[in-house]
């Protein structure tokens, strides 16, 4: 039986290898809900459906140069798990380099990510 | 106005100072639900109500010698926030020293902790 811990571990391994898109394609449910803590004016913090989640990921990857990503986890409870990300990135448009920290909370249903929710560090 | 970030920051400050009980007494709702990822046989992972949450905290404090606690956060999204804890402890009964990592997810309602949910690291 595939457990929450198994899926969480695989997603963490994919993220550690930089394969964020593959993690999403493999595990997002078709009706996944992806919730940011905030965003640019005019951008809805809630993305609904696999195509919207994919689009957000592609926008992010294109808009930023990623110098390094540290992935810590998974931390598991029932059908949910959390992962901490520390990113060193440069926003291409502004040229601003930033160190970001966030924790992602994933909720699984039938072995797929039904919801992902991102918490931003200070 | 007191925001989620304000309350989260205060709770993190109390925890960094080792004042876990004070953090709970100040912010737990009377009907707080506290959810562990697991527990010893016979122990319900879900505690309901402030008295039960307090009892769990007192049991934990009495059963373990705490050598150090690292508190990382808060990470905020809406009325929820997460905090990462890394603990170096010894279980008094077994004498076993352990390094534990967990992430706590807090859900606020009317400025109080309505739910806290603990995710265990590997």
What can you see in these coordinates?
The structure is a homodimer of 122-residue chains. With 122 residues, chain A is an alpha+beta fold. In chain A, 29% of the residues lie in helices and 49% in strands. The first copy, chain A, has a six-stranded mixed sheet with strand order 2-1-6-5-4-3. In chain A, α1 packs antiparallel against α2 (20-27) and α2 packs antiparallel against α3 (50-63). In chain A, 25% of the residues are buried. At the A-B interface, β3, β4, β5 and β6 of A face β3, β4, β5 and β6 of B.
Shape of chain A: globular
Helix content of chain A: 25-40%
Question: Which strand-content bin applies to the residues of chain A?
Answer: over 45%
Q: What would you call the quaternary organization?
A: homodimer
SSE string of chain A, helix = H, strand = E?
HHEEHEEEE
| Number of continuous helical runs of chain A | 3
What is the alpha-carbon Rg of chain A in Å?
A: 14 Å
Q: Average pLDDT across residues of chain A?
A: 95
Number of strands of chain A: 6
Gap from first CA to last CA of chain A: 38 Å
Are there runs of chain A of 5+ residues with pLDDT below 50, and where?
none
Q: Given the helix and strand composition of chain A, which structural class is it? A: alpha+beta
């Amino acid at each position: 039986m595939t457990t929450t811990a198994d899926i969480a571990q695989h997603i963490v391994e994919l993220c550690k290898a930089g394969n964020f898109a593959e993690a999403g394609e493999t595990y997002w449910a078709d009706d996944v809900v992806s919730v940011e803590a905030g965003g640019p004016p005019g951008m809805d913090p809630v993305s609904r459906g696999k195509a919207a989640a994919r689009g957000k990921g592609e926008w992010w990857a294109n808009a930023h140069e990623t110098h390094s990503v540290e992935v810590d986890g998974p931390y598991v409870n029932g059908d949910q798990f959390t992962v901490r990300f520390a990113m060193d990135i440069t926003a291409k448009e502004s040229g601003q380099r930033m160190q970001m920290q966030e924790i992602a909370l994933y909720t699984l249903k039938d072995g797929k990510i039904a919801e992902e929710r991102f918490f931003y560090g200070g």
